[in-house]
């Protein structure tokens, strides 16, 4: 999807706005799982999630091709923070569509970065359709959830991970709309590594898993998981094309397993992970027997979770959708 030169240019651009995020091999986490576990801390970006990297690269390119159009996008929260964050430097108007019942704290963060918030639909995919209608009627620029510029920007975290940890046996990464997983596949290929990239979905939002298994795009009727970053029903065709070829497998994890992983990450690293941010660790927990003694990484994609929800998880509960 991009060249090494594209990746180097993206890194230079991203680092004008933020520092590389840390990657640590946490000993207590390794003891719990029986392998060397590196955590890539995308919860340490300026917006608390990996998406900001893609927003910066996308906005830089858009400023040259469409400098004046209003921006419209849909999100469950982290993409919806990245676009207004990146747009601030260009004084761009940003409209963000979210579904009903979306995280109140993510909504507040999007507005704090300057977005005009619109609440529409029962889930992300209904909000996405509403955003498409808005862009069509207003002449605004529709910012997609998956695009080569977004993927190239997000890929900067994969480059940082390989630079810090060297060649790994396996990396686990959650799949929402696919930019994170696709970026890791691309970086792995550019670096010439044999590392397995394993995608992770919620059991109740497994459209990407079904699609990879079927060899074609499969949509689902619902995506009822509290891990909102992976709560999608309709796979993106370009993302599917990359992931079908580049992933070793896709692992399903339940909401109970995700909540357990959030608690494990907090106990062993004292980092807050939102549901999607803990999904990779949940998958490693489920596959711990096959990873014994190996060098493994998990991508903690974000830490943006409402305080009340995180408190309930730490108390031993699994949030109900």
Strand arrangement, largest sheet? Answer: 1-2-10-7-8-9
Backbone structural class: alpha/beta
Element-level helix/strand string = HEHEHEHEHEHEHEHEHHEHHEH
C-alpha end-to-end distance: 35 Å
Helix content: 40-55%
How would you state the average pLDDT, rounded?
97
How many distinct helices?
A: 13
Task: Provide the low-confidence segments as ranges.
Answer: none
Task: Assign an overall shape.
Answer: globular
Report the top-level CATH class of the largest domain: Alpha Beta
Q: For the report, how would you describe the main beta sheet? A: 6 strands, mixed
Query: What's the architecture of the largest domain, going by CATH?
Result: 3-Layer(aba) Sandwich
> Total domains, how many?
2
CATH topology of the largest domain: Rossmann fold
Radius of gyration: 18 Å
**Number of DSSP-assigned strands:** 10
């Amino acid at each position: 999807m991009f060249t090494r030169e594209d990746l180097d240019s993206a890194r230079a651009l991203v680092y004008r706005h933020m520092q590389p995020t840390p990657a640590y091999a946490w000993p207590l986490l390794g003891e719990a799982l029986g392998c060397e576990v590196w955590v890539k801390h995308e919860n340490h970006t300026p917006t608390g999630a990996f998406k900001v990297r893609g927003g910066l690269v996308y906005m830089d390119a858009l400023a040259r091709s469409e400098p004046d159009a209003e921006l419209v996008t849909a999100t469950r929260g982290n993409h919806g923070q990245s676009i207004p964050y990146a747009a601030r430097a260009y004084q761009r108007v940003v409209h963000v569509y979210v579904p009903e019942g979306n995280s109140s704290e993510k909504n507040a963060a999007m507005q704090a970065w300057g977005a005009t918030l619109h609440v529409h639909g029962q889930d992300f995919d209904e909000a996405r359709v509403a955003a498409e209608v808005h862009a069509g009627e207003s002449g605004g620029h529709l910012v997609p959830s998956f695009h080569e510029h977004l993927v190239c920007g997000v890929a900067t975290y994969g480059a940082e991970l390989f630079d810090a940890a060297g060649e790994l046996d396996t990396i686990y990464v959650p799949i929402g709309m696919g930019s994170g997983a696709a970026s890791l596949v691309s970086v792995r290929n550019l670096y010439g590594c044999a590392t397995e990239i394993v995608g992770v979905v919620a059991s109740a939002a497994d459209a990407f898993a079904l699609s990879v298994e079927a060899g074609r795009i499969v949509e689902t009727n619902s995506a009822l998981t509290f891990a909102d970053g992976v709560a999608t029903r309709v796979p993106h065709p370009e993302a599917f094309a990359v992931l079908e070829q580049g992933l070793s497998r896709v692992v399903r994890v339940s909401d109970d397993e995700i909540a357990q992983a959030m608690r494990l990450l907090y106990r062993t690293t004292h980092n807050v992970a939102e549901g999607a941010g803990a999904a990779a660790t949940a998958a490693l927990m489920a596959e711990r027997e096959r990873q014994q003694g190996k060098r493994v990484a998990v991508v903690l994609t974000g830490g943006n979770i409402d305080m009340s929800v995180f408190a309930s998880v730490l108390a031993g509960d699994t949030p109900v959708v």
